[in-house]
Design brief:
Two copies of one chain form a homodimer. Chain A is of the alpha/beta class. The first copy, chain A, has two domains: 166 residues, Isopropylmalate Dehydrogenase, CATH 3.40.718.10; 107 residues, 3-Layer(aba) Sandwich (Rossmann fold), CATH 3.40.50. In chain A, 50% of the residues lie in helices and 14% in strands. In chain A, the strands form two sheets. The first copy, chain A, has an eight-stranded mixed β-sheet with strand order 3-10-9-4-5-8-6-7, sandwiched between helices. A two-stranded parallel sheet of chain A has the order 1-2. In chain A, helix 6 crosses helix 7 and helix 8 runs antiparallel to helix 9. The longest helix of chain A is centred in the last third of the chain and has 29 residues. In chain A, 53% of the residues are buried. The mean pLDDT of chain A is 91. Chains A and B meet through helix 8 and helix 9 of A and helix 8 and helix 9 of B.
Amino acid sequence: MGGDHGSRAIIHGAARAAQEHPALTLELFGPRQHVMAELSRLPQPLAAAASRLVPRDAAHAVPPGATAAWALRHGRSSSMALMLDALSSAQCHVDAAVSAGNTAALVALSRRVPGMLPGIDRPAISTAIPARKQRTCYLLDLGASVDSPAQRLADFALMGAAMAQCVDGIEYPRVALLNVGAEAAKGSVSVRQADVILRRYATQGAFDYHGYAEGGDLFGGCVDVMVCDGFVGNAVLKSSEGLASMLVERVQAAFESRLSGRLASFLARPVLRRLKQELDPVRYNGASLLGLSRIVVKSHGGAHAEGFYYAILRAMQEVEHNLPERLAERWQQTAP
Amino acid sequence: MGGDHGSRAIIHGAARAAQEHPALTLELFGPRQHVMAELSRLPQPLAAAASRLVPRDAAHAVPPGATAAWALRHGRSSSMALMLDALSSAQCHVDAAVSAGNTAALVALSRRVPGMLPGIDRPAISTAIPARKQRTCYLLDLGASVDSPAQRLADFALMGAAMAQCVDGIEYPRVALLNVGAEAAKGSVSVRQADVILRRYATQGAFDYHGYAEGGDLFGGCVDVMVCDGFVGNAVLKSSEGLASMLVERVQAAFESRLSGRLASFLARPVLRRLKQELDPVRYNGASLLGLSRIVVKSHGGAHAEGFYYAILRAMQEVEHNLPERLAERWQQTAP
């Protein structure tokens, strides 16, 4: 039921994933009548997959503006909570949960059920940012925590490195700590303390530690994981999304003012459309909630059907690599 | 002597400003022999302005990696400190200082000489970010402070609003506080406390307070001033610079793969060149150190001659509007 474009975008994205992956079944949590009506209106070829889109009745949804505290107190029977209950129930055989709903509620509810992996305090939100050299960089945290102390930043590094290893097969991921400069004396106290912990983890073989990096290094293609507090990561991610979208508009306007309409649409639009997709990471990749005992992926609230489809693919990738279990193994090897 | 491209870029940028503004005289702080040699090599028409480029001998420069503490202890006779001494000396008749050197050193040294305006604790670094609707947004702080408490964030708001009023003539600037979401319960403690102070300032008529904004709103064109801690602002600014530069490369590569070399250079390159300039705010605008008793502008370390030229123009604009004096007036009207 989440997302800015309503349940139709969610159901269309789900139908596309089901249609392309014959072994996939998706349970759709929302008011049954409403979900059934949307399913019956699916166009071909999406409608062919409708038998593997199973409505699960949930009368109400977490409101977009609800706080974590509200969700914990009043959200027990919301579509989001019922989805997470199904994820953690042994009878339901659900492998992963995907939501485009309220992020704060998703973090709070999933921390309770399915709950955290042993030894991990809070989930981190992470997404793969497109970078130079055809590479991506996992940025985390994107807003699950604000004011992160040093140990939590170090936890983010372990989780990000585990994701790069398990999902992307990077044996020895290069991890950097976001700071205001590369010099040792710079930055906040928690960042400087985290640097000490990360150096120790690196000597234990957890990852290849790059040291401090600046915001621009996110796109440089030299780092696989960039760690920061959730306030900073959220600001960086959202400003990057805003800038990318403004830039694509400006390039388009600039070409249209120089070229005739026809030539512009032939030359510029296909290029810009592809670029837009490449550069809108959360909208097109989904964001993973790491550190939970099961797989939960957050789709962008502003995602259309295509974005939700990609979030489902992300969840499937994490299922394939058994991410939580492998993350737990790595945790026991390294964490204090 | 600062900047990644050496003194030649600085001197060429200075010469261009002097050539275009016949009333402008620039004093150049660096080793006299070296500066003289560069001046003698200026090409026409820049060489015509050489008589208004006055070398001021300074044997050494603050190293790029020096800390603020190092600069305060050992930097007294550096080109940067001598420039700031000239700025604060009544005999020198210097109106503004522009540097492409070490930011931490510039903040620390300028805080000592020329010093802060009465009642202001620390300078803030701010630059105008290009936004939609042909507008710009002042983002501050960009790294002068990390871990800013609520009152310092509120000070940033007053300084940014004063800049928008004085320099851009926006009578009632729209000020926003950067947060992880628009909801009241979100964000760090200092941001939520700053929100309370900003609401009070707004009722006193200091500015039009928009409330919380997210990273993407920086480019939306609906806000004139965006306030955040220096760690966050620095990360947002540098990641935006990195993204803009990656994006321009990608657009260029995409067009070049679709068009013949000649057509690409005719159609795409001029558009992209302009875009690059528009989107590289610090490189092309300079960043102001606000809250000092005199005008100090930081040019991007990576700026070529053109970037340094724009930083000088920025300083001239602030001189024209008598920014520190007007900022001090506004301070007395509003601040606690």
